Amino acid sequence: MNKQTILNEMKTVFGTFNRATFVINGTEIEINKWNKQQLREHLSQWGEKAISSFKFERMGMIDVNQPIYLCFFKNDYMITNALESVIHVLQVEDVYSFTGLIESYKYVEPEVPEVPDRSVRFEYSYDFNRCSWMLTMGICMLGGCDTEFVYFENKADAIEKAVQFTNEGKEVIKVSACEDCHQEHMDWSEAY
Ligand SMILES: [Zn+2]
């Protein structure tokens, strides 16, 4: 399969859906199509550094008036306007094998945060500073801060572990106050 055929197939999928997982040259890659607002929220949380630190070739500036793609693959991620740059990163000697995992094709409402699976007690998320998926294992009761994490190579492993921990009866550890909140509390007390 050549690059253009793969691009056409991906674009067809993203005409309808905004999340899909593909396997290109044996590497699984999850792609989320974003709007301007989602990119803005991302930048406000993680900073411009999260984009400028990319080391990938052929990556241009992000044009917010074009489709924006957040792509997770292996232990890395990429934000780009061009699906082509994703294929470029994954190419192995120009042999392109491509499979779309149809069951992963979804439309996720961008304005509504995803409803977590209530039967699973652990939340998974992506840490853009560490380029790693993680589970939150501890919560600070004072400020609601996440305090303890376990890291994973990919999203599937994080979800699998979340289900396993839940089935084993594990729970998120609740600490009365994390260090930051404790310090803030102390500063506050001293001031009055
Ligand atoms: Zn806290």
Briefly say what this structure is.
By secondary structure, the chain is an alpha+beta fold. The chain has six helices and nine strands, in the order H-E-E-H-H-E-E-H-E-E-E-E-H-E-H. The protein folds into two domains: 3-106, no CATH class; 124-191, no CATH class.
Write the layout of secondary structure elements.
Elements: H1 3-16, E1 19-24, E2 27-34, H2 36-46, H3 49-52, E3 68-73, E4 76-80, H4 83-90, E5 98-106, E6 124-127, E7 132-140, E8 146-152, H5 155-167, E9 173-175, H6 179-191
Parallel strand pairs: 7-9
Antiparallel strand pairs: 1-2, 1-5, 2-3, 3-4, 6-7, 7-8
The chain binds zinc ion.
Zinc ion binds next to α6.
Please explain how this structure is put together:
By secondary structure, the chain is an alpha+beta fold. It folds into two domains: 3-106, no CATH class; 124-191, no CATH class. The chain is 33% helix and 30% strand. The longest helix has 14 residues, at 3-16. The chain starts with a helix and ends with a helix. The protein binds zinc ion. Residues 140, 142-143, 145, 177-178, 180-181 line the site of zinc ion.
| Helix fraction bin | 25-40%
Discrete helix count:
6
The H-and-E topology, N to C, reads as HEEHHEEHEEEEHEH
- Category from helices, strands and their pairing: alpha+beta
Low-confidence stretches: none
Distance linking N and C termini: 70 Å
Output the strand order for the largest sheet.
4-3-2-1-5
Shape: globular
Round the mean pLDDT to the nearest integer and report it. 88
Oligomeric composition of the shown chains:
single chain
Count the strands?
A: 9
Rg, nearest Å: 19 Å
* Total tally of structural domains: 2
